[in-house]
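Might you be able to consider the sequence and fold that I enclose below?
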Amino acid sequence: MLIGGAAVGGYYLGKDDRSPTQIAADSSITAKIKSKFVGDKYVDAFEINVDTYDGAVTLHGDVTNTIAREQAGKLASQVEGVKSVDNRIRVLKPVKEEAAANESST
C-alpha cells in the first residue's frame, strides 16, 4: 500500500535508516519466525506479533501459559539472521482461574 510515500514491508522508506536489503532481510526473518510458530503445537501464531529491526526481534502478544511464551522465544532465536530476541509476550491467567479467584475472594 502507498500512503504519502513508498512503503516496503510495513515501513516507510523515508523514515527508515535501514537499507532496502536490510528491510528485506528483516521481513524474511519475521516470515520465517511466523512460519515456525504456525507449525508448532505450543505456540498460537495468531496471538504473537513479530517485529524485526536489523536482526533484532521483538515478540509481543498474550498467551495463556509460560510454555508458549518460552517456546516462541526459543523458535525465534533459532532463525538464521536473528541477532537477539526481546520476548515481551505476556502470560495471562486463564479466564476460569481468574473467575474462580474472584469468587473465592467475595
Residues 19-104 form a domain with the Histidine-containing Protein; Chain: A; fold (CATH 3.30.1340.30).
